[in-house]
Amino acid sequence: MSSPLVENLSDALREIRRFRKKEIFDGLLYRSEFCMLIAIHEYCENTGEIGIKPSVLTEILGSSISAVSKQLKAVEEKGYIERSYSKKDKRVVYISLTQKGIELLKKAKKERNSDIETIIRKLGKEKTEFLIEILEEISAIMDEESKVEKKHD
User: Fold this and answer.
1) CA distance 80 to 7
2) Digit-coded pLDDT (tens) for 73-87
3) pLDDT at position 45, please?
4) Where does the chain have alpha helices with state H?
5) pLDDT at 79
6) From CA 81, how far away is CA 99, in angstroms rounded?
7) Which of 75, 76, 141, 144 is disulfide-compatible with 80, CB 3.0–4.6 A?
8) Are 49 and 43 in contact, with CB atoms under 8 Å apart?
9) Helix 31-47 to helix 99-123 angle, to the nearest 10 degrees?
């Protein structure tokens, strides 16, 4: 039987996660599809490339090629990404965001920032700073634990 602290923390985390599991923007995208758009955007922004190869996207997302292909098809049909082909080798495909995809990410960032500003305003500066400190500690603990698990694999 788990302790009340374990149960209470688990319940609190579940409540926070509950908001993230809903479809994004009234059913436009599932969370996994949205994460894919973010990964494409960040890769292109960080590398200066015009697009990302599906194989690289698969590595970044840690998903199978079939799962990534299925998601790419879904977001392409919704108009958020486009495929382009290498002029040197027509077998090489690059994925990039369309203007519609870029606008969706801008809207999401604006809404996320608004939500965070509300949290900061309601918690106050001191509690927010403490929350950041705790979250950074949790992240460090989880990072350390994942490294220990990898050593045992």
Assistant:
1) 40
2) 999 999 999 999 988
3) 96
4) 4-20, 31-47, 54-61, 65-77, 99-123, 125-152
5) 96
6) 9
7) 75
8) yes
9) 100
Burial of 63 (0-12, 13-18, 19+ CB in 10 A): middle
Side chain identity at residue 52, one-letter code: I
Tokens of 119: 């949290």
State the pTM of this model: 0.77
Average pLDDT estimate for 29-55: 93
Q: Which of 40, 142, 55, 48 has the alpha carbon at shortest distance from 32?
A: 40
Task: Give me the amino acid identity at 105.
Answer: L
What are the two backbone dihedrals, phi and then psi, of residue 99, each rounded to the nearest 5 degrees?
-60, -35
Structure tokens at 21: 């599991």
**79 DSSP 8-state letter:** T
Instruction: Calculate helix-pair angle for 31-47, 54-61, nearest 10 degrees.
Output: 110
